[in-house]
Amino acid sequence: MKLIFVTSTLGSGGAERVISILANEFSHRGHEVEMIALTSISPDFYQMDDNVKFIHADKKCNGGIITEVIWFRKHVKTEKPDCVIAFMEAVYEFVLFSLLGTGISVISSERKDPATLGPLRKILRGLLLPTASAHVVQTKQIRDYYNKCVKKKTHIIYNPVDERVWPLHELALRNELKREKRIVSVGRLYPQKNQKMLIRAFAKIADKHPDYSLVIYGEGFLRDELQNTIDQLSLHERVNMPGRTSTVIEEVAKSEVFCLSSNFEGMSNAMIEAMCVGTPVISTRVSGTEELIKNEENGLLVDIGDENALALAMNKLLGDKNLSPT
C-alpha cells in the first residue's frame, strides 16, 4: 500500500508526534510511505524512518498558496497513492481542496476541538469535509459535534502512545519509579494551553508545599510573557520552563503530578502517557478528559479557566498520593 501523510510541520507538537509514529509504523510494516510537511517554518523535531520519503512542500514551489495547491495536486496525482492522510484542520482543508475531482481517497484527522473555530473556518470545513473518504477524531464529544453527513463517516481513534511508556508502566505497577517533588506540564507555550493560569494556581499553593516545583516543558511565543508572570509572583526559583525535550515521557514519569491546564484540546498525548506511567493527573474538562478520567478516582478534573479550582486540586493531590491512574 502506498500512503502519503500530510502535516503542517514536524515541530514538537502532539499532532506531529502522532503522525510521525503512524508514518514510521506503516513504513516498518512494509508499506511505501511519504511524509509531506507543508511548511518548514519550525525545525523538524521528530525523526522519520529512513524508508519514509520526506518532503518540505514550501521548498518545492516558490510563491503563495495557489502555487502550493498546484504543486501538491500535480505531485499527488503523479505519485498515485492508495490514500492521503491529512492531520489538522487547516491541513486537511488544503488537501481536500487541492484534490477535488481527482478521485483520490483522503482521510482527514481532527486534532483539536472543532467548536473553537471561527465562523468562516467552520463554513469552509463544512463545505470540504463531506468530500473526505473518512474523518478521524479522538473523542466521542468531538464526533457528536458534527452534522449527520460528516458524523456517519467519522471514526474515533485514540492517540497511540510511544512504546517507551511500557517499561515505565511496569515499574509504576511495582511502585519502583523514583518520583521527584514536582508538578509537570507539557505543551506549546500558546494561549490554548493556558500555562499562565497554571503558574498562578501554583503560586496559591507554593507556600504550603515548599519542597515542590513546577516544570513546564514546551516552547512558543508566550515564553517571555510567562516568564514575566513567574518573576512577578517571585517564583523564579520554583517554576522552570526548560523548553522542548526528547525525553518527555521520562520527565513525566519521574514527576509526582501531571497537570493539563488547557482551554481546549483534541486529546492530550502527554496526559495519556502520564496515566500510562502512573503519574497522578489533574486536568481541565477539555475534550477527551472525561472519557479517560473518572473524577477523584484516577485523577482530578476542574472547570476550564478556574484558577482557584486548579489550585485546590493541586493542594489536594499533593496531600493524597492514592489518586493515581489504575
Would you kindly provide a brief summary of this structure?
The protein has 326 residues and is α/β, with parallel strands linked by helices. It has helices spanning 14-28, 65-79, 89-98, 119-128, 140-143, 148-151, 165-173, 195-205, 223-232, 248-253, 269-276, 289-292, 307-318; strands at residues 2-7, 32-37, 53-56, 83-87, 106-109, 134-137, 154-156, 180-186, 213-217, 239-243, 255-260, 281-284, 300-302.
Describe the SSE topology:
Layout: E1 2-7, H1 14-28, E2 32-37, E3 53-56, H2 65-79, E4 83-87, H3 89-98, E5 106-109, H4 119-128, E6 134-137, H5 140-143, H6 148-151, E7 154-156, H7 165-173, E8 180-186, H8 195-205, E9 213-217, H9 223-232, E10 239-243, H10 248-253, E11 255-260, H11 269-276, E12 281-284, H12 289-292, E13 300-302, H13 307-318
Parallel strand pairs: 1-2, 1-4, 2-3, 4-5, 5-6, 6-7, 8-9, 8-11, 9-10, 11-12, 12-13
Helix pairs in contact: 2-3, 8-13
What would you say this structure looks like, in words?
Helix content is 36%, strand content 19%. The protein has 13 helices and 13 strands. It has a seven-stranded parallel sheet, sandwiched between helices. Strands 10-9-8-11-12-13 form a six-stranded parallel sheet, sandwiched between helices. The protein has helices spanning 14-28, 65-79, 89-98, 119-128, 140-143, 148-151, 165-173, 195-205, 223-232, 248-253, 269-276, 289-292, 307-318; strands at residues 2-7, 32-37, 53-56, 83-87, 106-109, 134-137, 154-156, 180-186, 213-217, 239-243, 255-260, 281-284, 300-302. It folds into two domains: 2-156, Glycogen Phosphorylase B (Rossmann fold), CATH 3.40.50.2000; 165-318, Rossmann fold. It starts with a strand and ends in an 8-residue tail after the last helix. The protein is of the alpha/beta class. The mean pLDDT is 92. Helix 8 (195-205) crosses helix 13.
